């Protein structure tokens, strides 16, 4: 593409193989209107640059599309559900590539409290983590791939925040039967999950008397996912005004991770 040949590539740019994986899942542009000045591939490159570098929209390098154009597409795809839809499609492809069913039967639940900035919006104080900001509640499959994310005030207890996630998941994953979680989700939530969602919530606790770091079965998977997301500096804090924007950022980061994983394995050639 002309815009790409006139600049040096960034490490976050989509390769040809990655673009071939993600392009079919982008919305088809409506007919009519003015022709697009900036290709969607460059729009995505700019969004992934912001995520990885952690810069503000207005600080996009000048050899990428204008920040207002990039933000317009990011916001449009947040509002119409494109980010979540692409995440869903690529997750199924990764699972199939690894010889799994495209839909999970088990998942892991956890939250992460992060500080917010001076940007106005929902926030609260997590007394346990001593963090003023928001919580990212995520549900991942057994491979650590994102199934659902809900961002809410850090003051909401894990057991209540879990319900916000699980009610959104209830009708989307028909094979789901088992969810693993840590001791913070013990108590009435176990029965609520069984009654409302018809799933089993299994609590995995630390062994008594063990001090310091301990690798716990299944729970390490979701912790690894948070580690993956931590590579994207835009997610080091919650810089977004709306929780929905924060969720879209997390979906976009996971999309970038998955499309790179997919591109490492060549697509089958049609006969």
Strand proportion, as a percent range, falls in 5-15%
Radius of gyration: 20 Å
Counted by DSSP, the helix tally is 9
Helix content: 25-40%
General shape: globular
Order of helices and strands: HHHHHEEEEHEHEHH
User: Strand tally, please?
Assistant: 6
Instruction: Supply the helix-strand structural class.
Output: alpha/beta
Chain-averaged pLDDT: 91
Major sheet details? 6 strands, mixed
Walk me through this protein's architecture:
With 271 residues, the protein is α/β, with parallel strands linked by helices. It is built from 9 helices and 6 strands. The chain is 40% helix and 15% strand. Strands 1, 2, 3, 4, 5 and 6 form a 6-stranded mixed β-sheet that branches. Helix 7 links the parallel strand 5 (178-181) and strand 6 (200-203). Helix 2 packs across helix 9 (243-263), helix 3 packs across helix 4 (67-79) and helix 6 runs parallel beside helix 7. It is globular and about 60 Å long. It starts with a helix and ends in an 8-residue tail after the last helix. The mean pLDDT is 91.
Core attributes:
about 270 residues
How is this fold's topology laid out?
Layout (H helix, E strand, L loop, with lengths): L1 H4 L10 H7 L17 H14 L13 H13 L2 H16 L8 E10 L8 E3 L4 E11 L4 E8 L4 H12 L8 E4 L6 H10 L2 E4 L15 H11 L13 H21 L8
Parallel strand pairs: 1-5, 5-6
Antiparallel strand pairs: 1-3, 2-3, 3-4
